[in-house]
Amino acid sequence: MPNIVVLVKQVPDTYSERKLNESDHTLDRESADAVLDEINERAVEEALKIKEASEGEVTVLCVGPDRATDAIRKALSMGADKAIHVSDESLHGSDMVATAKVIAAAIGRVEGVDLVIAGNEASDGRGGAVPAMLAELLGMPQLTHARQVTVDGSTVQVDRETEEGLTHLEAGLPAVISVTEKINEPRYPSFKGIMAAKKKPVETLTVADLGVDAGEVGLANAWSTVLEAAPKPPRTAGQRVDDEGDGGTKIAEYLVGQKLI
Amino acid sequence: MRFALSAEQRQFAESLTGLLSAADVATVARRWAGGEHEPGLKLWRRLAEVGVTALAVPEHRDGLGAGAVELVVAFERLGYHGVPGPWTDTAAALPALLDDELLAGVAAGETLASLRWDPHVPHALDADVADTRIAVDGTDLRVFTPGRSLSGVDGSRRLFEAVPGDVIASCPDPGRAFDQAALATAAQLLGAGRWLLDRSVDYARQRVQYGRTIGEFQAVKHLLADVATRLELAGPLVYGAAVALDAGGDVPRDVSAARVAAADAAYLAARTGLQVHGAIGYTAEHPLGLWLAKVRALTGTWGTQAFHRSRVLTALRAGSVR
């Protein structure tokens, strides 16, 4: 009966234009539609699959501003049982280390956690280090970049896929897992699930509730500082090659010039 | 009276959008038109899993017992994505026609129904794939057997002659079932109109003529703006009729007004869509034709425009205007 915590994050829609605030270079959350990060849908799906195979309970954990409740609702309507929402103005601009500390403290409030499931990286920050940091803070084994997860009694097996290749990992529970896009196809919330989600408990906590020192979080206490940011330059028009019988040669010459072939 | 959809209704629509956007429904519809039902039935079951077929089924028949507003939300999405199959018969009309254990099969997505309803639905839709076939004859419900297959304007709506047999049950007040089906049709038309507008706007932004995208020409903008306005005005009538079905009101008047407005708006979207797309819209390769045909077919089923206009007129004459 695994007790699972799934980490979810609300991110700007990947299909919309994403911007940074000009004043402090943090994410401009107002400029784009906010959605539950797609990789987190897969993390929730995996947790639900494990739960359906052997019962247990799935808790969704989200650190984010008030409007992240929409992302939490979606996870609950997919079938998660309850949620913890850490929402605090002082968290604005927190770096990954501070975020991991807050998440670790919030996980500490769930009794008897067997498994923490996260996405391998969020589509906005793309740091991809929070699951590993979290495992370190919680003193749990980390099985990251999983494309397949099998829970068997008190152990968990994972196929870990990275650019270097495939590794098969096994650890005793409790453990921290991060999943990749290949893990599964997330379900669509059903009408029943959506209605049931309305009644599921969401516990909202502040940094102080978690006993985390406010001096450890936020933009001012981040270990790194963004000094300057510039928008990505617009794509320049490509080079046009007219085929006068020698099109292939010209393309090859271009590719050689770019040291691609 | 509150017309705005609730957060849950919007979320349900989003869920259906996600599912249907990833399902390549145009291909499913083309195969359905060719008599190849398997992809369509698979999609049917997936939509049943998220609850579409169970919405109007009462809870004591394993349904969701949801309201007409939820039904409209779902059917608008079915229309937008051009989903083939006897959806109106099965998920909108049948649950209000009888209270029978076969509704549990409807809710689970295992039972497909085809109805004949003289004179409004003279031919039976998808009667070859449906396992429950009922001809509504006044207050009598008769089984029917599918006869000759007929050709219709929309290839993905496969029509059959219905040969009525024995009376199996009676429905003292079939009006609710009819109105629910007419409203589901209106919602599908609204959705189909929105799809036609969206694709036409996309195309107008893409297609270049005389050195600029055609959407920059005012004449094209006006065409599309007219469609947007008509659809925008039809929307509240459709949702308003659903509220009337749920909360009480002059249901026949409101449903018919919604059907007339939605069909007119969708038909304008179809005509304009074809014009904006130009010749490409005529080709079988482009999906536009699937929606053009669907709009034309839906406009004539579950009551003609003339029938629905006459119901509005009757209500107005009776002085039921509030």
Automatic annotation (TrEMBL), chain A:
Gene3D superfamilies to which the protein is assigned, alphabetical: HUPs
Signal peptide, first to last residue: none
GO cellular component: cytosol
Residue span(s) of domain Electron transfer flavoprotein alpha/beta-subunit N-terminal: 24-214
GO molecular function, one term: electron transfer activity
One Pfam family from the record: ETF
CDD domains hit by this protein: ETF_beta
Requisite cofactors: FAD
Keywords linked to the UniProt accession: Electron transport, Transport
Subunit structure: Heterodimer of an alpha and a beta subunit.
Family to which the UniProt record says this protein belongs: Belongs to the ETF beta-subunit/FixA family.
Function in brief: The electron transfer flavoprotein serves as a specific electron acceptor for other dehydrogenases. It transfers the electrons to the main respiratory chain via ETF-ubiquinone oxidoreductase (ETF dehydrogenase).
Protein name as it appears in the record: Electron transfer flavoprotein subunit beta
Protein's organism: Prauserella shujinwangii
UniProtKB/TrEMBL annotation, chain B:
Family annotation (Pfam families): Acyl-CoA_dh_1, Acyl-CoA_dh_N
Coiled-coil segments: none
GO molecular function, one term: acyl-CoA dehydrogenase activity
InterPro entries: AcylCo_DH-like_C (IPR036250), AcylCo_DH/oxidase_C (IPR009075), AcylCoA_DH/ox_N (IPR013786), AcylCoA_DH/ox_N_sf (IPR037069), AcylCoA_DH/oxidase_NM_dom_sf (IPR009100)
Domain Acyl-CoA dehydrogenase/oxidase N-terminal: 7-84
Protein name: Alkylation response protein AidB-like acyl-CoA dehydrogenase
Keyword Zinc: no
The keyword Nuclease is assigned to this record: no
Family named by the database record: Belongs to the acyl-CoA dehydrogenase family.
Keywords, ordered alphabetically: FAD, Flavoprotein, Oxidoreductase
Domain of life of the source: Bacteria
Domain Acyl-CoA dehydrogenase/oxidase C-terminal: 177-313
Lineage: Bacteria, Bacillati, Actinomycetota, Actinomycetes, Pseudonocardiales
Cofactor(s) needed by this chain: FAD
